Amino acid sequence: NRISNGVKNNKILIIIVFIIAILDLLFLLSKNKTVSNPQNSRNPVASPESRTALEAKTNEEGPVKVKVTPIDVSQNSKLWKFNVVLDTHSVELDYDLTKAVSLFDEQGKEYKPVSWEGPGPGGHHIDGNLTFNTITPVPKEIEIRIVNVGDVAIRSLVWQLK
User: Fold this and answer.
1) In angstroms, rounded to a whole number, what is the distance separating the alpha carbons of residues 53 and 55?
2) d(CA 81, CA 129)
């Protein structure tokens, strides 16, 4: 009787391990699908008004990596939105991005953000959206300048719109 209980327990243990392995494999496969599927990523999709999506720009100077992705920069938008990601392993990210980031047109006119949707200062990773008033008429070129983040005086990221 002890032997049959031991065999039964071993079978149950093997089945449990097998189920866990299958669930783990399914989880990894679904994670890879999410990463490789462009519909699930943060890359912008062209709106009917803009017809062209703007690519993410990255600056890796100093100890802080900065990535900015235009989400909605079109003439028909009431507000222009940019996804901003700061990442580091060595310094505290205690920056108020509404003060550290500005948008410029090709004539050098400065536009300050009207809002920040994301976490407050602190930590080693910040990911959120900065919103600006729409620039009208739409300039040929826009520039995001980020000042004094990660011991870098000015980071400049430029996009051609027309």
Assistant:
1) 6
2) 6
Cα distance between residue 155 and residue 59, in whole Å? 7
**Alpha-carbon distance 46 to 51, whole Å?**
5
Q: How many CA atoms lie within 13 A of 64 on its CB side?
A: 26
- CA separation for the pair 134, 46 (Å, rounded): 17
Q: What is the pLDDT of residues 133-159, one digit of tens each?
A: 999 999 999 999 999 999 999 999 999
The span from the CA of 52 to the CA of 35, in Å, is: 22
Which amino acid is it at 39?
Answer: Q
**pTM of the predicted protein model:** 0.67
pLDDT by residue (tens digit) across 76-113? Answer: 888 999 999 999 988 889 889 999 999 999 999 999 99
